[in-house]
Amino acid sequence: MARSQWGSRLGFILAAAGSAVGLGAIWKFPYVASQNGGGAFLLIFIGFVFTLGIAMMMAEMALGRAAQSGAVGAYRKMGGKNWVWVGYMGVLVGFLIMSFYSVVGGWTIAYIIKSVTGEVISADAKHLGSVFGSFVSDPVQPLVYHALFMALTVGVVLGGVQKGIENLSKFLMPALFVMMLVLIARGLFLPGALDGVAYFLNPDFSKVTGKTVIDALGLAFFSLSLGMGAMVAYGSYVSKDTSIPGSALWVVSLTTGVCILAGLMVLPAVFAFGFDPAAGPGLTFITMPAVFAKMVGGQLFAVVFFILLMVAALTSAVSLMEVVTSFMIDEFHMKRVPAALSMASLMFVLGVPASLSLGEWSGYTLFGKGVFDLLDYTTSNILMPLGGVLLAILAGWKIWPEIHAQLGGDRGERIVWMPAMKAISCFVAPALVGVILVYNNL
Ligand code: TRP
């Protein structure tokens, strides 16, 4: 049976960007950059994105198209049975990410409602901080929204409304872009905002530690949806005549663009309103309402912003859920409905302690981290980079001729960077990521 394919190159780029652009860029990037001192972090992040990031993106897509199957099948077919477990690990990572991702997805829904009621339309930093704090630490409310977000995701995966979502993203992605530009423009005129811009753009290398480097690496993998096989599945639907390098460059650039815009949107507001730059996961949720409060029609902007954020999160969540669901279908011959429902229920259950760890259960920690942080840290900073290294080794050492052919072979225009791609796969990725992983985790 012929595998279904994306309608066009643009459709492929948008779908892959829809998976990549999500909470990683808009929620996680600003607070992680902010916690890590701003400018220097941004440079290191960009460095990773345009070397390892782009190379791994191309390798995943090429692997998928060469094998004509999703991650587990692709590793089995191209690598042999010793490699299958890299595919399994990807499924596990998808499962773990989704369990806390949908908790944050739930926050976006809650903030749509809080914007409608006006609860968060305020320029009072203290008030906004306490609204967020008491919401996420509440034992019941976030769980209700968590369930709601999970149900929406399953609804899309089961209802087969992916096409609908894809078409919707064609409008929502540009809308998100424009919205961010408007918010940046407003934010920059707030008194004190330029300190935030300086913090974000001026590299201060004295702030760089091992943690900065591993956080930048982990965030690069997380926000580009790399290291767990999602892009392998996407690559398997790419038609023969679509250029993978060109598409990958677009996806990586778009996602990085949104990350940078998110930083420019959030950090000036942090400084203008005197929030704590090290505030953590609440940063986007706490600071943006303060900017809305200073805008004409701010409440409307707030509602639209959180809706866009929710949809961006949903398009990413759908791709995570799809990886896990299709694994259960392919490997255990489950039917689609029970596969999606059972996995979603399990993810929901795992999300419960993640959510509670921000409140009632904050006392329960392992290695100094609560469940939420532990899930986030292990997936982004350990398992995804590890998945990336293993993929690089497979691509560079074992199946390079296939990867090379998928990337356009020896056609003139490619020759310039092809050796770089091979060097990254064979040496740079394994060595660099290996050193960072060992240094940070031993
Ligand atoms: N990139 C997504 C975001 O930034 C989250 C994500 C991480 C993801 N890994 C993934 C999405 C794998 C799909 C597949 O929000």
TrEMBL record:
A molecular function (GO) term: symporter activity
Keywords, alphabetical: Membrane, Symport, Transmembrane, Transmembrane helix, Transport
CDD domains referenced in this protein's UniProt entry, alphabetically: SLC6sbd_Tyt1-Like
Membrane topology: Multi-pass membrane protein
A GO cellular-component term linked to this record: membrane
Pfam families: SNF
SUPFAM superfamilies referenced in this protein's UniProt entry, alphabetically: SNF-like
The protein's name: Transporter
